[in-house]
Amino acid sequence: MRYFDTAPFYGAGLAEERLGAFLAGRDPTRLVVSTKVGRSVVPGGTTVFDFGRDAIRRQLDESLRRLGTDRVDIVYLHDPDDHWAAAIDEAWPVLAELRASGAVGAVGAGMNQTAMLHRFVRETDMDVILLANRYTLLQQYEADELFAACERRGVTVVLGAVLNGGILATGAVPGAQYDYRPAPPEVLQRVSRMEEAGRRHGVPLVAAALRFAAAHPAAASVLIGAKSAGELERNLAAAAHPIPAAFWAELRELGLLGADRPVPAA
User: 219 to each of 98, 213, 228, how far by Cα in Å?
Assistant: First the structure.
């Protein structure tokens, strides 16, 4: 692993501090580090969105301090869903200036939707997007137009939340989470059928989900979160798990996988 993603919002800055401590003394030329601006947590736990010019510079300065570095490889606008005007008119010019000065390597936006990311790709010269939850075994087509636009404009795609907030790791268990809320019955049923097919072919659901996302030609990287070393080890094993072609064929026959969706080689 050589790509590490964080944000001020994660743990109210604690994630950046811990990543900074971990990276201290390591060769930065062998790593890629990204953080985000625009969304943070203030004392008391309140989430604050601020995409103003001064706020973006201040947030990045604070992130660099917590990370213990003077530069990061990628800076994303963090979930500007309800803040388009400020993000495009104020935040984006700041990121472009920072990139031009060499203070950051690449700039982009990270979101859980395709429509606004598509607009950013069309209307700016962003380098990279971080798309969460929208290209997964359960969300197979929503990102097609966005991916095509990224390919035309040379924009790198990083995929996040490819387990749809949990259910593609836990399976259809009681209380399974889908997009950060309890999974509806139709999603539970679909996941259950995927699990059954996986058992017939010796394929864990989490392995199928990770390998499916990584197989898309637009995906430069897949971000996987982990809450423990053991979970990280299981994720890495799942990402390398062999999957027979017959498994993907059965998913297609069951109507659970689109006929034109790319899958990894057996």
Answer: 25, 8, 25
In whole angstroms, how large is the CA radius of gyration of the chain? 19
- CA dihedral sign, ordered 158, 5, 54, 85: positive
Structure tokens at 264: 């990894």
Q: Please state, in angstroms and rounded to a whole number, the distance separating the CA atoms of residues 151 and 146.
A: 9
Strand arrangement of the beta sheet that strand 104-111 belongs to: 3-5, 32-37, 72-78, 104-111, 128-132, 156-160, 219-222
Pairing, β 32-37 against β 3-5: parallel
| Six token digits for residue 157 | 């795609």
Cα(264)–Cα(212) distance, integer angstroms? 7
Judge if pTM exceeds 0.85.
Answer: yes
Stated length of the chain: 266
CA distances to 44, 84, 89, 200, 247 from 118, rounded to whole Å, are: 34, 12, 17, 39, 32
Write out pLDDT tens, residues 89-125: 999 999 999 999 999 999 999 999 999 999 999 999 9
Q: Is 173 exposed, middle or buried (0-12, 13-18, 19+ CB in 10 A)?
A: middle
As given in the structure block, the two tokens for residue 14 are 């604690």
| Catalytic center residues | 10
